[in-house]
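Hi R.,

Here's the chain you asked about this morning:
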Amino acid sequence: MTVKTRFAPSPTGFLHVGGARTALYSWLYARNQGGDFVLRIEDTDLERSTQEAIDAILEGMNWLGLNWEEGPYFQTQRFDRYNQLIDQLLQEGKAYKCYCSKERVDALREQQMANGEKARYDGHCRDLGEAPEADAPFVVRFRNPVEGKVAWDDHVRGRIEIDNRELDDLIIRRTDGAPTYNFCVVIDDWDMGITQVVRGEDHINNTPRQINIYEALGAPVPEFAHVSMILGDDGAKLSKRHGAVSVMQYRDDGFLPQALLNYLVRLGWSHGDQEIFSMEEMIKLFSLKAINKSASAFNTDKLLWLNQHYMKSLPVEEVAEHLAWHFADQKIDTANGPALTDLIPVMAERCQTLKELAQSSRYYYEEFTEFDAAAAKKHLRPVAQAPLERIAEKLSALSEWSAEAIHQSIKDTAEELELGMGKVGMPLRVAVTGAGQSPSLDLTLLLIGQTRSVERINKAVEFVANRANS
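And here is the predicted structure, written out as tokens:
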């Protein structure tokens, strides 16, 4: 049998990191087993589902590179199939019409909770012969077994058994004729041939209900793997207050998809002490049995460390594709400066995110109108005028604009003026970048370019002279 997994988000919000991890685990298992991965949009919640959320889910999956063989399927396009099978269950006596009003059900649950009992439907209409009145509104409930247990061997949690007496008769079709989530999921997984269902632990309570529906329909029951929740840095359940929980927010904040995937795979799965995995390694080594059932805590510092690792180690062409988005987002025209593939090796050592790299690289592409006040006060003093004038002469005379030639010019200037390298280098750095921090001067000047570098030095000389005369 071909292994087939699925990711089935509800389009009521963006793709969050918990969902992305579930998608990744499902995707990896399918790839590891040579199977197929299905994307399904579970949009039965008509009031809360939006096209914006659907677009965000697709954008997030594409950005992460989690491609699918089938889909995206939409549950709202399959209502005829669901209703056909609900009618079949009604005819077979495996489902029944319930005429209880919402007020009765609410009152029942309130009384049960007041008595310290589990809130559940009491089966009032289970054996009702006919409608209390013509055209009375009704829902359709699944006739859950009242004896025995539901059991399955969960890939993550081991053997789980639930007594059928703990389960009530689930609504499978509402009064408006719309089938409900728990029923639709069963039919979809059956029709799509899903063999393993990987999902969050919050679905454990749904699983026995769904297994009973599979068996009532004579459908094969897939295997299940219920993964634990992700906690925030503070140990609380990950939520919006922890900051970036939408996958695309991580893109916006400057993270590479490779780094986020590597980080997410380790939030609950491990292979020895290995921390860094290529996608090929993830696919080769992944197994559902190796997923830890303990909750995992999100560690932003570790994600930043991983991101910088990938910025430095991935092929520069790959990093440049993602970096270009950030330059465009910050409205920096990269046509007027060095190639991004040349910039990345120089700047990645100093930055943890692509957003930071783009922000820190603006001076390579744009002119600045003023110097950083603190850096100028410290380094663009009258004593800096002579070394700046001398280095400008040497740099403008270079026939070869190379890091080696630039370095030698700085060194020669320091020796000729009998100054330490810092007395030449720091004023020069402020002159060409506008601030006191940058990568090594020879590489910085190399990327800024000869003409632009000399022009900036001359402006700094003018700045120093004006300060001296003021």
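One quick note: The two ends are 84 Å apart (CA to CA).

Cheers,
M.
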